[in-house]
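Weekly modeling sync, notes
Attendees: AB, CL, MP (scribe)

Item 1: holo prediction request
CL wants a bound-state model with zinc ion before deciding which constructs to order. AB pointed out that an apo prediction alone won't tell us much about the pocket. Agreed to run with the ligand included and paste results into these notes for async review.

Input as submitted:
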Amino acid sequence: MKCVLCNINQADKTNTHYLTDSIIRSCLNQDGSNEREKGYYFDISSNKTFTDFNFQRKTTLSALEAGLGRVPSEEEIEKAKKVPFSVDHFFCTECEFIFSEIENKFSSDFLSQFREKDLTGISSLSFDNSTVFRQFFLIQIWRTAVCTNFEFKISNASSEMIRQLILTPDEAKLKRFPLSITYLTTRGGLMEYTKNIVGYTNETTPNVIFMNDFIIQFYEPDSKISLKELFGINSADYKTFINLCENKFIVKIISNDLRIKIVAAFIQERKVMPLLSRFRELFEELFRKKYNIDPSPQTTNMYIQGLVNCGDLPLIERLSIKRVTDYTNEFFKNYLQP
Ligand SMILES: [Zn+2]
């Protein structure tokens, strides 16, 4: 396969991150150790269920099987082993170097202004020279689109234009893409980053990527721009942050308190509600398999209630594979006792 950036060389690179590793890493680590693959995280593209979660490499097959109520498919096992948000054989070594250059420049010129500064009371930051800044966020958009085979949808015209702008930056052309970047102030140490979200939605207008403490909203150049609240990320002044042909690039800064509310609202609406109906089905399936009869509605409700109401555990951890597996095993054990 040919590299999808240059369209010339063989795509020889494996394990290419399509969301920049240095940005998402602290979110994907449960103990904030900055080593990869320790954390628990969601694939947030909508309509995905428990069975489509990404999970840690170390998740044992038997735990997975018990959690799913069936043997995992080959595809699920393969997915479980993969480094999250990365792909093989999409890009060549030369193009990987182009990405790295943009990513490194972003890190050295901009990242510390967000992560290492006290942003208390600050509602926006602006930057004069936005070429690298725009390129950096557009490569996240473009790579996510091409590496998910356009499950993350952008138009072919935009995709082709961005591809060229990655190879040959042109500030005037880069500015034609309406791009809104929100920074979620994350305070309280490295553990707090693991409560953020990494992933993308498959909506358009705008396309949204959650990238730990950065949120990218991308519009096609000719799309109708309107206020979408997006869990409290956008408000009445949203147009200030669209950055269409502006000289200065303006980034919205969200306080730590609001970040916590936004993440909770997101998880409740996008993960918990759809998941509960899926868990209901999985439970009934498992019950029938064990006892050859349907569970009563009361039994199913009891199961779901116990799943949701669980002391102090953060919402996201209540529905992790481990917790659901343990809870389900416990539920059946107790169910059998008189
Ligand atoms: Zn290439």
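Recorded for review: The first strand starts at residue 16 and ends at 17.
Action items: CL to compare against the apo run; MP to circulate these notes.
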